[in-house]
Amino acid sequence: MLQPSEQHTYADIEAVYKCLEEGYGAKQEDIILYGQSVGSGPTLDLAARLPHLRAVVLHSPILSGLRVMYPVKKSYWFDIYKNIDKIQLVDCPVLVIHGTADEVVDCSHGKQLWELSKEKYEPLWLKGGNHCDLEHHPEYISEKLEKLKNQSNYAEKLRVSFDQVERSRRSVDCCLEKSRKSVDHQLERGRKSVDRIRTG
């Protein structure tokens, strides 16, 4: 089994892109890449190599792995997901969504990536939004679609992309909730077993 690594995430997103292109006949112009948090790394790595993408959406993105923990001013060889160095290679419109109260990845990461984008799309800074709750803010979809209403084709593609992301997130949340309940149940059974031994 492969160990998780930065390079393997790049290989994963490349494989998905190849599947869309070769298996489903999708063209770059029809694809909107969407990367959230650490997922912004593989997203920008691929986007930097595809000059004709429809758009890129960065949701609570990071400047780089090291910059999440330390306020470094330059890129080091051992850093990972160096988005700050790749964003300027992206030729399509870039939409950045970031919560202003993000306690995991400071909003300054999203703002700097947006500033460095060649083709900026009006960003969405969600007031009071944290790292994992942006989809609960009404503006998350409605405001962006309102601003995109004059670009109906792009807006529809973006709406479909958001819908797919939300369905996937709900599916993952459901699996995580089931896993959590299973673990809680096993822990409770173990505790009762230990309690019986202690009182026996």
Give a structural overview.
The chain folds into 2 domains: 6-140, Alpha/Beta hydrolase fold, catalytic domain (Rossmann fold, 3-Layer(aba) Sandwich); 152-200. It is an alpha/beta fold and 200 residues long. The protein has a 4-stranded parallel sheet with strand order 1-2-3-4, sandwiched between helices. The chain is globular. α1 crosses α2. The protein is 50% helix and 10% strand. It is built from 7 helices and 4 strands, in the order αβαβααβαβαα. The model has no long low-confidence stretch (mean pLDDT 82). β3 (94-99), α5 and β4 form a beta-alpha-beta unit.
Helices and strands in order:
Elements: H1 6-24, E1 32-36, H2 40-47, E2 55-59, H3 65-69, H4 83-86, E3 94-99, H5 107-116, E4 124-126, H6 142-147, H7 152-199
Parallel strand pairs: 1-2, 2-3, 3-4
Helix content: 40-55%
Alpha carbon gyration radius: 20 Å
Share of β-strand residues: 5-15%
Which structural class do you get from the secondary structure elements?
Answer: alpha/beta
CATH homologous superfamily identity of the largest domain: Alpha/Beta hydrolase fold, catalytic domain
Specify the overall morphology: globular
Give the termini distance in whole angstroms.
Answer: 44 Å
Organism: Linum tenue
Protein name: Serine hydrolase FSH domain-containing protein
